[in-house]
Amino acid sequence: MSRYATDRLIIVPDDIDLSRSPLAGHLDAETYVLGAFNPGLTRLANGNLLMMVRVAEALRTPIFDNHVHSIRWDEGRYGLDPWPLDLVDTADPRVFKLRGGGWRIIALTSLSWLLPVELSPDGLEVIAMHYDKAVAPENSLQCYGIEDPRISRVEDRFLMTTCSISPERQSTTLYSSQNGLDWVFEDIVLDHQNKDMLIFEGEVGGEYWAQTRPLGDLYFAYPPGSEWRAGPSINLATSKDGLYWKPHRKPGIRPHSGTVATARMGGGTPPILTPEGWISLWHGVEPKEIIGIYRTYWSLLDRDDPSRILRTSHVPLIEADPELTRPIEDQVYIRDVVFTTGIVDGGDHYIVASGEGDLACRITHVPKSVFA
């Protein structure tokens, strides 16, 4: 049961019209919406909200002819790649792993593209789905799709970071817009496996700031008794123009040794400025089975030096709610996951957008008093 009076799913897979998908007409195979989730969020000039929804489009029957198939963009077309079943591990419904070799190599069971969805000012009603303005792969570094948009408005520009997937690199790419609806691809801004890049909604000391989350399979230990836990953490970076970024020498938000709930962590929403400082919502992952338990937490950062953490709450702000997905239980394929990706000011509350179970888009009205 949610702790908030307003907390509901606003977009579910059946709301997506795949006849208007960028993939429509390209594949000689039936597809379906595995998930419509992890939306970026911003407010448009007309007062409505713009939610950029990640649509994960998957094959209805990925396994045939003794192969599992994945979708790939190639020079303006979409096609299928076959992988022999005896070479792969399909335990995770989102990916399959290729066996053998000295590296962990995966392929995806879906290809993601981004759908702009216009909502009412309170985020509780769908006004329009802008299929004509969908953001889809357009070059080889995005051949396996575009994932997890985060939207920041900095002065008169909308900036959207995305994760672009390919065998070349798993990189962070930047789009910009003058109106929040028409997006232009700018460039790669962070290279391989640096995910969850969140640009602060405003400059600090005349510079752009961002949270980043580089991944790896090796971390150095903190000394015995440290309050921190070694592993993925939220770092900081600065930029003069939003394109070229320099890592900040001081750390950002780190996992705490006293709880396994943040054994793995990463950014959630672009930090927004309040009278007290920057509010940053982020996700912590408690180990459990293959995927883990994803929850949303928050920290308050100093307005002039975002590396200074003024307050952090170890009580989850938002948790997965099985009651929300009960009406679409037949489509649920993972549990215990909420992934918060957008926030806007709603007056006496914040309107928070999340992905629920890698399946649907969730809107939560969080009272500002929660952060006091």
TrEMBL record:
<keyword id="KW-0808">Transferase</keyword>
<comment type="similarity">
    <text>Belongs to the glycosyl hydrolase 130 family.</text>
</comment>
<dbReference type="GO" id="GO:0016757">
    <property type="term" value="F:glycosyltransferase activity"/>
</dbReference>
<dbReference type="InterPro" id="IPR007184">
    <property type="entry name" value="Mannoside_phosphorylase"/>
</dbReference>
<protein>
    <submittedName>
        <fullName>Predicted glycosyl hydrolase, GH43/DUF377 family</fullName>
    </submittedName>
</protein>
<keyword id="KW-0328">Glycosyltransferase</keyword>
<keyword id="KW-0378">Hydrolase</keyword>
<dbReference type="Pfam" id="PF04041">
    <property type="entry name" value="Glyco_hydro_130"/>
</dbReference>
<dbReference type="GO" id="GO:0016787">
    <property type="term" value="F:hydrolase activity"/>
</dbReference>
<dbReference type="InterPro" id="IPR023296">
    <property type="entry name" value="Glyco_hydro_beta-prop_sf"/>
</dbReference>
